[in-house]
Amino acid sequence: PDIAVQIAAGEVIERPVSVVKELVENAIDAGASRIIVEIKGGGIEQLRVVDDGAGILSEEVLLAFQRHATSKVESADMLNAIPTLGFRGEALPSIAAVSQMAINTRPAATDAGFNAEFAWGKLISEGAHGCPPGTTIEVSDLFGNLPARRRFLKSATAESGRIHELVTRYSLAYPEVSFHLKVGDRVVLNTQGDGRRANAALAVYGAEVSESLLEIQEEDPETGYRVEGLAGDPSLHRANRTYMTFFVNRRWIQNRMLTFALEEAYHGLLPEKRYPLAALNLVVPYEDVDVNSHPAKREVRFRQDGKVYAALQRGVRAALVAYSP
Ligand code: ADP
Ligand code: MG
To answer: Is Iron tagged as a keyword (predicted)?
Structure first.
């Protein structure tokens, strides 16, 4: 494969969880109502993502594995108004460049599906292939062609843990999607996908924790920015910050300012050195967010940080008002 693809692959695909993230986001973009993730050996040995989404037309499958050929974004202007999670047309070719990869896909309205297999970026077989509607992607021997990359990965247990965490976060942000995660032979997560966030939280955290979660649904009248999701009541706290999850327009992001805003909203309610558990989605006009600043799309920039900060604090405080000292 050409060197540009290899470089891009290194930026988009850092470890097994990056593969799962890209494949899960593609499944969500394809309108899936059920997403199954199965991993073996930390996802390095093998990982599989099965969805019941729109599928890909036979004549378009190979195109989807060409870099930038299929970007969901049609023009540069659209970069500022991105309704789908994917937009660079980079993930599939990048994953294919560093693994052995197979895809089976079929749109529900077509009779035959399509199968293609790649090894280290090279197409090794393709053709019509019966399969259920939707898309199944299997990735094996990740970074088998890049030993230095492979050595940089953590243990299978640690890599599995990251994948578990990722799928958990997405299941909370997309309660209308049923997520199923299998690590080796063990089912570690199974959400109903009935649209109720409280039910997703129950599947993720169990009854005790989910009973202490407050439902948040607030619109800031000044800006129209909305915050929705779940946040722990003050009895529920954690010793570190990893239980604070933020989505912007349902894209999982990391952002210091949001973390700080959330901690501020709990000011005086939690013991020293304790942090809230929360999974919050901010609904912000697309043109006020720039998601194009990071290859893995994990960081976003806001046109006006202050508006976002205020909306988040307002939403969380409204839910916490009963607990205010
Ligand atoms: P992007 O998501 O940035 O468009 P990807 O490389 O992730 O690029 O995917 C390339 C294209 O392949 C997508 O634009 C989409 O048309 C198609 N695709 C990928 N995964 C799926 C899927 N699970 N279901 C349906 N279509 C898919
Ligand atoms: Mg994508």
So the answer is: no
Asked whether 102 and 46 are in contact (CB, 8 A), the reply is no
* Three-state secondary-structure class, residue 68: coil
CA of 216 to the centre of ligand 1 (A): 32
Quote the pLDDT of residue 89. 77
Range of the domain at 299: 213-323
pTM of the model: 0.91
**146 and 281 assigned to the same domain:** no
Q: What's the CA-to-centroid distance between 64 and ligand 1, angstroms?
A: 6
203 found inside a domain: no
179 in Cβ contact with 191 (< 8 Å): yes
Ligand 1 nearest-atom number relative to CA 27:
23
| Amino acid 79: pLDDT | 46
Nearest-angstrom CA–CA distance, 195 and 174: 8
Give the SS3 label for residue 33: coil
Q: Which amino acid is at 9?
A: A
Residue 76 has a pLDDT of: 47
ipTM of the complex: 0.99
Residue that has been written with the tokens 């109502």 in this structure: 33
Number of compact structural domains in the chain: 2
CA 269 / ligand 1 centre spacing (Å)? 44
Q: Does residue 80 sit in the same domain as residue 145?
A: yes
pLDDT < 70: residue spans in the chain: 1-2, 8, 68-83, 86-88, 292-297
Question: Residue 280: which CATH number?
Answer: 3.30.230.10
Residue 286, pLDDT score: 86
* DSSP 8-state code for residue 31: T
152 in any annotated domain: yes
pLDDT at 294: 62
User: To test ligand 1's pocket by mutation, which of 24, 62, 92, 297 has the most ligand atoms within 8 angstroms of CB?
Assistant: 92
Q: Assess whether the C-beta atom of 71 lies below 6 angstroms from ligand 1.
A: yes
Q: Is the CB of 53 under 6 A from ligand 1?
A: yes
Dist CA 48 CA 109 (whole Å): 24
Q: Are residues 38 and 167 in the same domain?
A: yes
Residue 33 Cα, ligand 2 centroid: separation in angstroms? Answer: 17
Nearest residue (by CA) to ligand 1, atom 23, is: 27
Looking at the fold, whether 42 and 186 belong to one and the same domain comes out as yes
